[in-house]
Amino acid sequence: MSDQTVQTDVLIVGGGPAGALLGHLLARRGIDVLVAERQTSLEREFRGETIAAPSVVTLRRLGFGPALDGHGYLPTEGVTMRMEGRRVMHVDYRRFGVGEVPIDIPQPALIKIFIDAGQRHRGFDYQFGTTFTRLIEQDGAIRGAWLRRRDGSSVEVRARLVVGADGRFSKVRHAAGLTADVQQMARDFLQFRLPRPPQWGQQAELVINRDRHLVVLPTFPDSLRIGTNLPKRSLGALRKAGFDAFRSVVAALDPRLAPLVQQHLRTWDDTSFLEIFTAEVPQWSRDGLILVGDASHTCTPILGQGVNVAIQDAVCLTPVIAAALAADRAPVVTSADTAEFVTQRQRHKAFVTRFQRIQESALAQGGTVGVLLRRARYRTLDVLPLKYRIFGSVLNAPHQIDPADLAEDVRTGPAVGTGD
Ligand SMILES: Cc1cc2nc3c(=O)[nH]c(=O)nc-3n(C[C@H](O)[C@H](O)[C@H](O)COP(=O)(O)OP(=O)(O)OC[C@H]3O[C@@H](n4cnc5c(N)ncnc54)[C@H](O)[C@@H]3O)c2cc1C
């Protein structure tokens, strides 16, 4: 197969929420962008579908409201925490005063909204079935990358910036020699879906019994997305014990789900495994390269922040790239150009991770004293207005996006989904 050489302003490796939104926002500003996505379609594996409220606000400000409304989504009104069969805490998302609540929309639909909007701009090119293989380096700076297409052909892409938006196991990060401090959490996760009973409503639930728990998320259009924790490296033993034993554990954790589990959870193929870790990446950039989304900071699933931080990365990075390209100080966008972005985003990510670790260690309590203390702590918190301050500090932190950062994107962007 013949090789090809392509020139673009920005090459984004990975067309997930971070890469697709960033590509769209850059193209909106007249910047040429190639998004290389390894998958051949959007029907990707089971993953994050919750968009936190502040990101919903941001997406609406950017003009995505009609497209979100046109597709449909499920608002989540609050979360209830149950421990050892008792309701101990409830957080009503409508009381945060953000103007939106978290919404659930399938990730393929969200990415398609970004791609469709991007394709209205001349400079936007999203290529499926295109895999990053290696970086092109010259005089210590990244000058592009080699990609491989499904037909076996290779493409040499020359770019002024390569963005690694290729997720939690980022190959771009590795190729650039940027190291990740991977911290395994004590437990992993197994997820599955069940039909949502009509009486369930639009509330998320965290159902805890000692050191086992279920996260139950109402999911668009009519299901429940359920995750249950398991001790690290115990999937093999769990499978050996048989699927019925697993179903019994789930049904015992939340007897309300028992009939649904019996009827709809049939085989291990109905479940998907998620390894839980955080990845701290001290250095996110080099001259000619920057990491965003999960590639630069992998969160745990607690409070569903992964898509949220990916969206924020894209929104905050867009004006930085635009300014650096316009200033034309160097052949590539340098790490000095992106330094402030990195500092600001690392601070936010560290805060989210700290909060997630505290929650994770509370969930891991198995001993009687620890379980009693945990219940007492959350019960006390439940009656204090402080709980809205604490949860709001994480859930609504994205409000730190400066509306001034969005001004240019709002001005340049067409009203998405309105058929302009
Ligand atoms: C099972 C699961 C459930 C989750 N639940 C939630 C949730 O409820 N809420 C939430 O906020 N977050 C959740 N997350 C996390 C969330 O999905 C991620 O944080 C979010 O998708 C990160 O977006 P991203 O664009 O940075 O990376 P990703 O979504 O991982 O996208 C990276 C993209 O890069 C592509 N890619 C990888 N390697 C290459 C390569 N070599 N060449 C080209 N392309 C490549 C991949 O195919 C992928 O499309 C969940 C994650 C998982 C795995």
What report would you give on this structure?
The chain has 420 residues and is α+β, with helices and mostly antiparallel strands. The protein has two domains: 4-73 and 100-183 and 277-364 and 394-412, FAD/NAD(P)-binding domain, CATH 3.50.50.60; 186-274, D-Amino Acid Oxidase, Chain A, domain 2 (2-Layer Sandwich). Helices cover 37% and strands 28% of the residues. The chain contains 13 helices and 21 strands. The protein has helices spanning 17-28, 53-61, 65-71, 107-118, 171-175, 235-241, 243-253, 258-264, 306-327, 335-363, 368-382, 386-395, 403-412; strands at residues 4-13, 33-36, 50-51, 74-75, 78-83, 86-92, 103-104, 124-127, 130-138, 141-149, 154-164, 181-184, 187-195, 203-209, 212-219, 223-231, 271-274, 277-280, 285-286, 289-291, 297-298. The strands form four sheets. Strands 1, 2, 8, 9, 10, 11, 19 and 20 form an eight-stranded mixed beta sheet that branches. Helix 1 (17-28) runs parallel beside helix 9 (306-327), helix 7 (243-253) packs antiparallel against helix 8 (258-264) and helix 9 (306-327) packs antiparallel against helix 10. The relative contact order is 0.18. Residues 415-420 have low confidence and may be disordered. The chain binds flavin-adenine dinucleotide (FAD). The site of flavin-adenine dinucleotide (FAD) has 36 residues, from helix 1, strand 9, strand 17 and helix 9.
